[in-house]
# Entry
Amino acid sequence: MTPPLDPNPLDLACAAWRAIPGVAEVLSQDAAQQAYGSDTGGSTRTIRAAVRIVKNDGDDDCVSAVMRVASQHGIAVHPISTGRNWGYGTALPTGEGSVILDLGGLKEWSFDAELGVVTLQPGVTQGMLADFLDSKQHPYMVPVTGAGPSCSLLSNALERGYGVTPHTDHFGAVTDIEAVLADGSLYRTTLREAGTEELARLFKWGLGPHTAPLFTQSGYGVVTRMSIVLARRPEVVKVCLFNLKDDALLETAVERVRHILRSLPGTVGGINLMNRHRVLAMNAPYPDSPPDANGQIPLDVIETLGRQYQIAPWTGFCTLYGTRTMVAAAQKEIKRALAGVGTRMLFLSPGNARTLAKLARLLPGGAGQRLGSTAATLAKSLDLVAGRPNETALPLAYWRNPGKQPDDGRDPGRDGCGLLWYAPLVPMRPQYARAYVNLVTRVAKKHGMEPLLTFTSVNERLFDSTVPLLFDRNQPEAVARARACYKELLEEGRKIGVFPYRVGVDTMQAIKVNQTHSLAFHARLKNALDPGNLVAPGRYQ
# Structure
């Protein structure tokens, strides 16, 4: 008689997971691949299964039980919130063969309206929090990003994302987290363990070693709860728009931006400098004209579109927050600082921008349509600045997508968009900015990609630049060009002193180059907390 085969560990784990209260569904490999396997970067992974969780309460909770089962059977899991990490891997695991642990069904939160602290689970999105704050008339702002209303607040903070509201550094506004480790045990901060939960929400440093940041950009545990301090909505929200009419003014503009940020801390939230290519991609359809010999939009076409849409070589976008007196004084200082550099300077509130968009729609002909498109984008951008999430930045992902773009509910992964983000940190020095622009322009030209470039101030010393590599995901050669372009940007950027602050799932192995001491230290931590390498294996490892 043939002895019975040993049960498959994954089958045993799936059976155990289905019996856990709070687990809504366990998907088979085929169903999991269908639900989570689509990526804007054109990457693929084998996803063995997926576990969807909808309830997580108390010490003996669902996520802990799921991880105990995973540990018992040696099954690696990849936790996600909403899985909308577009341009960085979408919902894909870093490596092959993980089970997706979908926490998007965890949507509970509590809000301290007096002190402005929200405590939330992974499935709480920017849009959900914005709707709640508006419906209750709470005067606080959502820490928004351009990824849209359907994206998780918790996950963006864990990836150390940036936004445009006063708390630009999203993890910087985090005060407390809870997590589940690989063996199902819990992580809590010292003040929370002491029974002083309110203090834990109000004082991020806690007592003793400050360990909460270890759970950012890592696979040390599954974060299930987070407290975030919200910025209070100020009396006045405005933006300053200005143009650089000549690319040669960039270096001087960088110096003036640095001066403004140093002179007006707290009133100026952040400053963006966007090249013409980038602004056109947000406002104009991709042109029908044939590409040049490099596969790019011909320069004369870019210049013609710039005139038609009234977009200069560089566009500046500066956010202001404060009382009427503070903002009025800041406007005068900004005008002085940008004298001789910035032209066509405008100071607009969200209401001003909406009025401008309405008036622009009344203008006849193609010129009116183009101005209306730019004004509508501007109005939605000012709503973002005011802490109200929307999809104004998402059409960028569809610029090279041959399919029809939805009017709402955009999902670049689902809709076949091709997008990879190159997002390096750039010192706020004029020579670095110019060397970096030259690098992006040269490498993009080599690979037939459009050089869509933005500088965003992180502080008075540093820019975060974002370069979206857009391509037709249905064309294998276009996917290959985009990946080759990214690889060269990464390698050549490091040589001139710029390097990403976050990367996608296909790059997490490549960034280990020249990492000796830090890599060894992280390996020791991972081995201590997760010796079986079961939580997000390969994530920034």
Remarks:
- The chain has a mean pLDDT of 93.
- The CA atoms of residues 46 and 97 lie 5 Å apart.
